[in-house]
């Protein structure tokens, strides 16, 4: 199969032009631009995001469901146990299966609870690094949650989301 020499030359020129343009951006940044890193962090209280599970099995489906509820409720802190079945406080997922053994049904149920909680966001910016911007965002999110310092590192809160962006901003003066 023969190729037209002009087509191959055009493709090579286009590839070189794209590569050169991609390399021009760092040079422009070095000539008067600086990076600005922004970070947004979302956190929640540690206990609020960890799910609790209760399991039970047996030959009476209603009794198995009640036993699964008793199991999951027993795993909650004492202050939350009375509200265990309150769907305004917990997201509830119930799953189960039925097996037949020698003609008898065996039921298995799993109940998973996750406390409904507020999340808190913090934003940070840095001219140095994205990590520095995210550290500032984490402290801001912790402050919004009523905690001081880096509550994620302290273990009282969990990070639920992170968004990072970096851009080159011009530092040329007008004159």
Structure in a nutshell:
The protein is α+β, with helices and mostly antiparallel strands and 175 residues long. It has six helices and six strands.
Keywords:
alpha+beta, three-stranded antiparallel beta sheet, 37% strand, disordered N terminus, 175 residues, single chain
Class inferred from helices and paired strands = alpha+beta
Radius of gyration: 28 Å
Our measurement of the CA-to-CA distance between the termini, rounded to an integer number of angstroms, reads 59 Å
Largest sheet: 3 strands, antiparallel
Q: Bin the helical content.
A: 25-40%
Strand content: 35-45%
Mean pLDDT: 81
Adjacency order of strands in the biggest sheet: 5-1-6
DSSP helix count?
Answer: 6
Write the layout of secondary structure elements.
Blueprint: H1 5-30, E1 33-45, H2 46-49, E2 52-58, H3 61-74, H4 78-81, E3 90-101, E4 104-115, E5 120-126, H5 130-144, H6 151-154, E6 157-170
Antiparallel strand pairs: 1-5, 1-6, 2-4, 3-4
């Amino acid at each position: 199969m023969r190729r037209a020499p002009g087509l191959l030359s055009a493709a090579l020129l286009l590839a070189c032009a794209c590569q050169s343009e991609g390399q021009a951006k760092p040079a422009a940044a070095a000539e008067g631009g600086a990076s600005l890193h922004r970070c947004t962090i979302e956190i929640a209280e540690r206990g609020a995001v960890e799910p609790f599970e209760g399991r039970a099995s047996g030959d009476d489906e209603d009794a198995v469901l009640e036993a699964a509820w008793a199991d999951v409720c027993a795993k909650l802190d004492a202050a939350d146990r009375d509200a265990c079945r309150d769907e305004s406080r917990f997201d509830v997922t119930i799953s189960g299966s039925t097996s037949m053994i020698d003609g008898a049904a065996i039921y298995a149920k799993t109940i998973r609870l996750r406390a409904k909680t507020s999340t808190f966001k913090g934003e940070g910016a840095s001219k140095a690094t994205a990590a520095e911007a995210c550290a500032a965002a984490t402290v801001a999110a912790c402050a919004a949650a009523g905690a001081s310092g880096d509550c994620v590192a302290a273990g009282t809160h969990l990070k639920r989301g992170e968004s990072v962006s970096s851009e080159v901003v011009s530092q040329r003066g007008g004159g």
